[in-house]
Amino acid sequence: MPNEVDGSCARCYPRGRLEEVAVASVLFVLNDAPYGSERAYNALRHALAVAKEPETEVRLFLTADATACALAGQRPPEGYYSVERMIKKDW
User: Fold this and answer.
1) Which residues contact 30 (CB under 8 A, 6 or more apart)?
2) Quick one: which of 43, 52, 64, 76 could link to 31 by a disulfide (CB 3.0–4.6 Å)?
3) Phi/psi of residue 40, each to 5°?
4) What is the CATH topology of the domain spanning 24-90?
């Protein structure tokens, strides 16, 4: 379906046609602490996987205990994944 678009959200196809591309915007709301359960870790892991999809924008909203996910210099308890390391490596 050929469209005239401004190019900000368009993909070029052969023969000079432009088609509008849908951009998915996904918001993850986390409210659990980074350690003590695996909810925050799994939510962040899921957000990272979704962010790798083309034409997808991912945002995180950290509230309540989940704000600790954004703290630098974390020392996770024995047996837990480092949320800080995961975010720094993949984001």
Assistant:
1) 39, 40, 43, 44, 60, 61, 62, 63, 66, 69
2) 64
3) -65, -45
4) Hypothetical Protein Ychn; Chain: A, (3.40.1260)
